[in-house]
Design a protein that fits this description.
The protein has about 475 residues and is α+β, with helices and mostly antiparallel strands. Among the domains are: about 210 residues, 3-Layer(bba) Sandwich (FAD/NAD(P)-binding domain); about 120 residues, Enolase-like, domain 1. Helices cover about 35% and strands about 30% of the residues. A 7-stranded mixed sheet has the order 6-5-15-16-17-14-18, covered by helices on one side. It is globular, with a radius of gyration of 24 Å. About 0% of the residues have low confidence.
Length: about 475
């Protein structure tokens, strides 16, 4: 029997398998053989590099030689072109097949077994059970803990899946080449353009090669019917303004192909002895460009939960509750972000494609919260002195969180009108900051020094962000 069986060898499965093997567990990754069909390219923004460093794979990523990107060029909601360089650092434009093979190889190097075949979920008492089929035979596979990281296939996740309210989304994509290069402000940029009943996206893999996709709603987008995928694809290109001009200079080298890009979530993300990580549990809108990062972070959290389940039986229910709450919150946060973009498109296009997708979340709440934090930060900077106290009803209680490789109970803030528990923000321990603020520091620099003496030191911008957030949420009130 294995300690952990992982279904799927993509970014989530390879990440979870590598971590659990490094932590001393007997791990096997069960994954389908390499798919001969082409895979879409993906943009990994600069924030992904912080994750790679945290996971200890940054050198391997850099050594793979993926094409680096400096930002985005966007035509959205009828507005003029916006050239948006990344504020700091660079990201990567990666062919998913190559990227996935790299991560799976790292998992094998860490000691995880990898087996290729087909995985089946079979009914059984006491939680999900699986069987694995190779060319020779089909056998049950037993494990103390099971992680479904099978992505959209959802070997176990499908039985928990709930489709989002808005209609189905399909990506039509192909590979373009222009030996002379593309006439763009920055050839490394991801390109994004909205149009009447869909949106277009393009990622470069080299100076002269780009993947170009159109996100459409089969039930809403006015698509060419009965003339094959090539006619449908070129009809969508003809609807655009910027893309039509840019790709008139190139040639469609391969494709087009189609793939499902519809959103879904899960009724439950875990249960006794199993969890759903990455896209096996929930899929976010490709507009965010954070799909790979979200999957790998979910897998890291899932590996911590599995490690806790295996080593700390008394914490099993707490660990599963943490994972359930975390995955649901992450899904809601990404829905709010993409909802803001779709609302901007709906304001200009006035088409059901945009209106339906803008209904998924209230993005205004996220904008208002960020505005309130900025306002609180400016107010703190203007004050000559502060006298902070805890607001009525704010309390500290133990809540589950991650420390190292395990789920533990640690102090968190609970406040009226604030959803969920608050423990860390920008690496600042919020309960400790509230405690120190109440002791009467009259100057922000003094409070900053007191915090760094009492806790692991943090950068001043992070400290100010956390302090301003506590004031903006009404958790700390300035008596001055």
């Amino acid at each position: 029997m294995f300690d952990a069986v992982i279904i799927g060898g993509g970014p989530a499965g390879a990440t979870a398998g590598r971590l659990l093997a490094q932590w001393g567990h007997a791990v096997v990754i069960l994954t389908a053989p390499a798919d001969p069909r082409p895979t879409l390219a993906e943009c990994l923004p600069p924030s992904t590099r912080k994750l790679f460093r945290f996971l200890g794979i940054q050198d391997d990523i850099d050594g793979a030689g993926f094409y680096r990107t400096n930002g985005n060029t966007v035509w959205w909601g009828g507005r003029r072109r916006r050239v948006e360089p990344y504020p700091a650092g660079f990201g990567y434009q990666v062919p998913r097949g190559e990227f996935d093979r790299l991560l799976l190889g790292l998992a094998q190097s860490a000691g995880a077994q990898v087996r290729f075949g087909k995985v089946f979920s079979v009914p059984g008492e006491g939680g999900p059970r699986i069987e694995f089929q190779t060319a020779a035979k089909r056998v049950p596979v037993r494990a103390r803990f099971l992680l479904d990281c099978s992505g959209r296939a959802g070997v176990i996740g499908r039985r928990f899946r709930v489709r989002q309210r808005h209609p189905r989304t399909v990506a039509l994509w192909g590979v373009w080449r222009n030996d002379e290069g593309w006439k763009l402000p920055d050839p490394s940029h991801t390109l994004v353009e909205s149009y009447g009943d869909g949106w277009a996206w393009s990622v470069p893999l080299a100076r002269d090669v780009r993947h170009v996709a159109f996100m459409v709603g089969p039930g809403e987008t006015q698509m060419v019917r009965g003339q094959g995928p090539g006619a449908r694809y070129r009809a969508e290109l003809a609807k655009t303004a910027a893309f039509r001009r840019i790709f008139a200079r190139g040639a469609l080298e391969r494709g087009p192909w189609g793939r499902d890009a519809s959103l879904y979530t899960a009724r439950s993300f875990c249960g006794p002895g199993f969890l759903l990580a990455g896209d096996a549990g929930a899929c976010i809108d490709p507009l965010s460009s954070f799909g790979v990062k979200k999957a790998m972070v979910s897998a890291w959290a899932g590996a911590v939960v599995a490690n806790t389940w295996l080593r700390k039986p008394a914490m099993r229910e707490t660990a599963l509750r943490y994972f359930e709450e975390r995955e649901r919150q992450v899904q809601e946060d990404y829905a709010r972000q993409s909802g803001a973009w779709f609302r901007a498109g709906a304001a200009r296009q006035g088409h059901p494609f945009w209106e339906h997708r803008g209904e998924e979340a209230d993005a205004a709440n996220g904008r208002m919260e960020m505005d309130a934090v900025r306002a609180a930060l400016e107010a703190l900077r203007r004050k000559s002195s502060i006298h902070l106290r805890r607001a009525d009803g704010v309390r500290t209680e133990p809540r589950p969180g991650i420390e190292g490789r395990e789920i533990v109970l640690r102090d968190a803030l609970m406040a009226p009108g604030v959803a969920g528990a608050l423990d860390f923000l920008a690496n600042v321990h919020l309960p400790r900051l509230v405690e120190l603020a109440e002791r009467g520091s009259s100057q922000v620099p003094d409070l900053y020094e007191a915090y760094n003496r009492a806790c692991a030191p943090v950068a001043l911008p992070d400290f100010l962000t956390a302090l301003a957030a506590l004031v903006a949420k009404g958790i700390l009130i300035d008596r001055a």
